[in-house]
Specification:
CATH class: Mainly Beta
Strand content: 25-35%
Mean pLDDT: 73
CATH architecture: Beta Barrel
Largest sheet: 8 strands, mixed
CATH topology: Cathepsin D, subunit A, domain 1
Order of helices and strands: HHHHEEEEHEEEEEEH
Structural class: alpha+beta
Number of domains: 1
Shape: globular
Number of strands: 10
Low-confidence stretches: 40-50, 54-63
Radius of gyration: 18 Å
């Protein structure tokens, strides 16, 4: 049985992600529609707000932007396994990326471990960046991630980091996750 048949919510979410909405043709919602949509979406104050803080992502990025997906991560807190719901502005799906990339700040705040790629025999692994340069990968991590109730164990590359950008918290879900879900 196909996975999209098992999880209709996941199928609907990915269909919405892959459809471009022409904003000039969309009518503005009335105040009543906005109130109704707020009632439908449960407002849960989760551990993620404590763990990541409301300012974890960029203050200029709206949580309702296209390609933002609700993500949960399995981690440990005080030695006990917990599931942390991420704020919507931290994770985004990218059909143009062939890999899953995470920041070191995300891993540290989540309490997830990361290892060097040289331990697995990968040295000199690089990624082409949109500005035409190449970025060298030195670390990776493994953890369980859930998107709309579908859980997968993923291997992710850690974005190159320095002292300047080590506090940034982002998760880019590329094709490896999108194909398995």
């Amino acid at each position: 049985m196909e996975l999209f048949q098992v999880s209709p919510e996941l199928s609907k979410a990915f269909r919405m992600l892959s459809t471009r909405v022409n904003e000039t043709k969309v009518k503005e919602k009335t105040e009543e529609e906005l109130q109704m949509s707020k009632r439908r979406e449960p407002s849960i104050i989760s551990e993620s707000e404590v763990l990541y803080g409301k300012e974890a992502g960029s203050p200029y990025v709206s949580g309702d932007k296209t390609f933002r997906v609700p993500v949960e991560v399995k981690t440990k807190k005080d030695g006990k396994p917990v599931r942390v719901s991420l704020p919507k502005n931290l994770a985004q799906a990218d059909r143009g990326s062939d890999m899953i990339i995470v920041t070191v700040g995300f891993l540290e705040k989540s309490g997830l471990l990361y290892k060097t790629l040289s331990d697995r025999g990968f040295i000199g692994l690089t990624m082409n960046v949109a500005d035409g340069t190449s970025a060298r990968f030195t670390h990776y991590s493994q953890f369980e991630i859930g998107v709309l109730g579908v859980w997968r164990k993923v291997e992710v590359f850690v974005r190159p980091f320095s002292k300047r950008n080590s506090g940034e918290v982002h998760l880019l879900l590329g094709l490896p996750l999108l194909h398995t879900v």
